[in-house]
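From the methods appendix. Each design record in this collection lists the tokenized structure first, followed by the designed amino acid sequence. Records were kept in a plain field format so they could be parsed without special tools. The example shown here is representative of the layout used throughout.

RECORD:
FOLD TOKENS (482 positions):
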């Protein structure tokens, strides 16, 4: 294996590539929006990594024969800030194979075949021209019949200044067309909910009608994996692109729906602090308490817009809700000063991104991150609430069934949750903050548990409502926790 190049992809690189290709899908550009996706964190444009590695390859081997085809598989997401290595793994007279490694794990691989281009008789000039400003939001059913013609977002030379060796080897138009494929997948089809999976392209003889656009149509679809195959032609290429349509961000039930399961005034004396209440189970708990007549103070760390949305829904329904910023990674003392009064109940729901790529079974960095959220931050909050208000509280600590089942890639998560359970028991025993209710939750539908494959999960409210009732019963109408 020969190391071709290595580098980090940072936020400024994202902006630079988006400026020339036009792909501003939030999964690449918006840290808050990316957190609501399967990725959980901003992802580097796969085509950016491909073009950089092709440029590195053609710098390393500048006198290759013409490229006849290229086959690419985007195997794992590459996150902004990752250190990336491009490695040449095979080279003979007709084929070259390159792998992109992150922490020693293959994230992308491609094979280049050398030879003459093919004839191209499909101009596609009659297709409708598509160049949306915002990524298209399509259902999977709407994608099935998608077709059109996508113009290059910027002049080809502007793209090729970023990848000059690739432009010399492939042609200016072919490099620009590869960049355009990122716009096609990320902004047109599948669009907003896309994940670029791979491509299989053959060099076509450049024709004037090919310049400046990619024609496409959805040739195949597989709803089991939310996968679409796009047939493409243009810019000196012909072949196909594969892309997944990600599931939409998980929506929690609305307040009228929750009201069918919560008795009027059921939580009328509640004053609850919901840490991490802007999305997911924290949002659901906030709504349950508000529908039942209680007052909610929900916190957010990065998603203020989501927190304000939940607050607006609660107030519009006639409920009572405050919003404060709270980051469990920071000192609790200064942050809880924003509370106007001591809550009777605390629901502790903050979490980092749970599923991330690892190079080994155990990552100390990941374990420390989970401990910060699930143990250190929890203890800091409990201690400061007790010192500031001197009141006994009813506290929910949500743990996980993964402590017992431990699926693949969940070692550090399960360890940190187990540590949190031990901490809860000792806080309860030695510091008497009130009552800490620990419940191991099953897998419930949230942004963090979303999957490309349909997985049967329990309806969240059927699990969460009895727990909220149990927490509330401890304080009820002014009852003192045991």
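DESIGN:
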């Amino acid at each position: 294996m020969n190391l071709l190049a290595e580098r980090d992809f940072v936020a400024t690189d994202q902006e630079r590539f988006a400026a020339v290709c036009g792909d501003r899908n939030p999964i690449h550009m918006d840290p808050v929006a990316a957190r609501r996706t399967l990725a959980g964190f901003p992802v580097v444009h796969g085509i950016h990594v491909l073009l950089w590695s092709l440029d590195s390859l053609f710098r390393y081997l500048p006198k290759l024969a013409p490229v006849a085809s290229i086959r690419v598989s985007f195997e794992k997401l590459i996150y902004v800030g990752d250190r990336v290595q491009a490695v040449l793994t095979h080279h003979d007279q007709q084929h070259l194979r390159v792998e992109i490694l992150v922490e020693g794990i293959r994230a992308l691989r491609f094979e280049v075949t050398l030879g003459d281009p093919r004839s191209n008789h499909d101009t596609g000039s009659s297709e409708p021209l598509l160049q949306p400003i915002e990524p298209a939001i399509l259902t999977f059913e709407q994608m099935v019949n998608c077709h059109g013609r996508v113009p290059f977002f910027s002049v080809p030379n502007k793209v090729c200044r970023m990848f000059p060796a690739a432009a010399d080897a492939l042609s200016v138009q072919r490099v620009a067309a590869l960049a355009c494929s990122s716009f096609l997948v990320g902004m047109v089809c599948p669009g907003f909910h896309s994940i670029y999976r791979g491509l299989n392209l053959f060099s076509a003889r450049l024709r004037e009608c090919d310049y400046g656009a990619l024609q496409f149509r959805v040739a195949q679809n597989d709803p089991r994996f939310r996968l679409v195959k796009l047939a493409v032609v243009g810019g000196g290429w012909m072949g196909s692109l594969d892309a997944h349509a990600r599931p939409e961000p998980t929506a929690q039930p609305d307040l009228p729906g929750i009201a069918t399961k919560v008795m009027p005034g059921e939580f009328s004396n509640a004053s609850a602090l919901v840490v991490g209440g802007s999305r997911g189970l924290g949002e659901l708990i906030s709504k349950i308490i508000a529908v039942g007549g209680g007052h909610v103070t929900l916190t957010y760390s990065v998603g203020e817009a989501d927190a304000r949305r939940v607050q607006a829904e609660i107030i519009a329904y006639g409920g009572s809700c405050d919003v404060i910023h709270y980051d469990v990674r920071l000192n609790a003392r200064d942050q809880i000063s924003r509370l106007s009064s001591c809550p009777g109940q605390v629901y502790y729901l903050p979490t980092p991104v749970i599923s991330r790529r690892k190079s080994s079974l155990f990552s100390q960095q990941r374990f420390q991150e989970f401990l910060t959220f699930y143990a250190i931050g929890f203890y800091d909050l409990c201690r400061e609430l007790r010192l500031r208000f001197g009141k006994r509280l009813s506290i929910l600590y949500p743990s996980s069934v993964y402590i017992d089942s431990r699926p693949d890639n969940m070692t550090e998560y399960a360890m940190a949750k187990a540590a949190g359970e031990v901490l809860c028991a000792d806080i309860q025993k030695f510091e008497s903050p009130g009552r800490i209710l620990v419940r191991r939750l099953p897998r419930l539908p949230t942004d963090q548990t979303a999957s490309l494959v349909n997985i049967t999960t329990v309806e969240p409210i059927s699990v969460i409502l009895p727990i909220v009732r149990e927490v509330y019963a401890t304080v009820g109408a002014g009852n003192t926790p045991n």
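APPENDIX NOTE: The first strand starts at residue 2 and ends at 8.
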